[in-house]
Structure formats: C-alpha cells, structure tokens
C-alpha cells in the first residue's frame, strides 16, 4: 500500500489527490469588479485550481479580477 493511502487509512482522512499543491501563506492582493477600481484584499491560499481571498466588503459578483501585490 502506498504511503499516502496508508496515512489516509490510519488517520481516517481522505487521500490528498491534488494535482497542484496548495500554497498557504498570506499575501497582499487587490481585486476589481469593474476592471478599473482596485480594492485591497488579503490572499489566504492559492493553488492551480483557484484562490481564496479575504476582502473588507462583499465582492458582489461571481467573477472578478484579482492581482497579487
């Protein structure tokens, strides 16, 4: 049995099947809903499948631009 599967069985957690590892280090970011106005944000984690950011106010849209600073 491969080590990741053995660890998952032993701990009772699912096997980590991520293709890209998740980077969990806070970083400065900005976001824009209209493409012109930049608002501050804090990035919490980032991976090949997406990112998680913390904003001071609701973004209000499903899609927006985000930049790492």
Order of helices and strands: HEEEE
Helical fraction equals 10-25%
Which parts are unreliable, with pLDDT below 50 for 5 consecutive residues or more? none
Largest sheet: 4 strands, antiparallel
Query: From the alpha-carbon coordinates, what is the Rg to the nearest angstrom?
Result: 17 Å
The structure class reads mainly beta
How many separate domains? 1
What kind of oligomer do you see?
A: single chain
- Specify the overall morphology: elongated
Percent strand: 35-45%
Summarize the structure.
This protein has 69 residues and is mainly beta. The protein has one helix at residues 3-11, and strands spanning 27-32, 39-47, 50-55, 65-68.
What does the secondary structure layout of this molecule look like, with pairings?
Layout: H1 3-11, E1 27-32, E2 39-47, E3 50-55, E4 65-68
Antiparallel strand pairs: 1-2, 1-4, 2-3
Description:
With 69 residues, the chain is mainly beta. It has one domain. Helix content is 13%, strand content 36%. It has 1 helix and 4 strands, in the order H-E-E-E-E. The protein has a 4-stranded antiparallel β-sheet with strand order 3-2-1-4, with no helix packed on it. The longest helix is centred in the N-terminal third of the chain and has 9 residues. It is elongated and about 55 Å long. 4% of the residues are buried.
What are the main properties of this structure?
69 residues; single chain; mainly beta; 1 helix
């Amino acid at each position: 049995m491969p080590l990741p599967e053995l660890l998952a069985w032993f701990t009772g957690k699912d096997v980590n099947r991520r293709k890209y590892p998740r980077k969990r280090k806070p970083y400065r970011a900005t976001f824009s809903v209209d493409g012109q106005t930049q608002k501050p944000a804090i990035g919490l984690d980032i991976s090949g499948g997406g990112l998680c950011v913390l904003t001071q106010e609701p973004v209000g849209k499903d899609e927006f631009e985000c930049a790492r600073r």
